[in-house]
Every structure is written in C-alpha cells, then in structure tokens.
Amino acid sequence: MARLKALKPRIQTISQTIAKPAAVSERRMTGRKLQSRRFNVWLRDPCCATCRRVVEYPGGFELDHKVPLFKGGEDSEENCQILCSGPDGCHAKKTAEDLRGW
C-alpha cells in the first residue's frame, strides 16, 4: 500500500505576532515629580485654561495635557494646562470631547 502525501495548504497563513500598541509614553510621571509639575504649572497661571476661574492648590484643579497623550502629545510641562475639576468642571468636558472622536 502506498503512503499518502501531505497536502500543502491552499490558504496563506497570517502572522501570529500581535502588533505592539503605539508607544504613547513608556512610563507616566508619578510621585514628587508629578506634584512638582502640578505646582509649577499652577504657579505659571493659577486659572483654568478654559473658563479662566482662579483655582486653589492642590485640590481645585486637574493637570491636563493640551494635546492628549493618546493622540501623540508629549508628557511635558509645556503640554500641560490647568483645568477646573469636578463633575461639571472644564476637565470633565474636555476629556469627554477628546474621547468623542477616539
């Protein structure tokens, strides 16, 4: 009895590797460095960048990236701004707007 030959695949296989997501930032800033950045940006301009309301340090604002990190913005002090916090604050509105097109 003759041996059966293995058939070659007719369908081309795809790569099994998973693409690495776009590198936004290898590591987000935390701790003292982040608090120092928050203070420096607040000292530069203690007002909300959108509504221009004066915000208190440290709990009255969120440090926001002008160009979001997930859209290619840099994690730098120059790309940071102060936005008032809270459920009706400018930070919540900007975040919702940034995510709308994502």
From TrEMBL:
TM helices/strands, residue ranges: none
Q: Does the keyword Nuclease apply?
A: yes
Which Gene3D superfamilies does this chain map to? 1.10.30.50
Describe the location of the HNH nuclease domain by residue ranges. Answer: 36-92
One MF term in the entry's GO annotations: endonuclease activity
Which keywords appear in this protein's UniProt record, sorted alphabetically?
A: Endonuclease, Hydrolase, Nuclease
- Specify the signal sequence span: none
Which Pfam families does UniProt cross-reference here?
HNH (PF01844)
InterPro entries the record matches: HNH (IPR002711), HNH_nuc (IPR003615)
Coiled-coil stretches noted in the UniProt entry, renumbered to this chain:
none
Protein name in the entry: HNH endonuclease
The organism of origin for this protein? Azotobacter beijerinckii
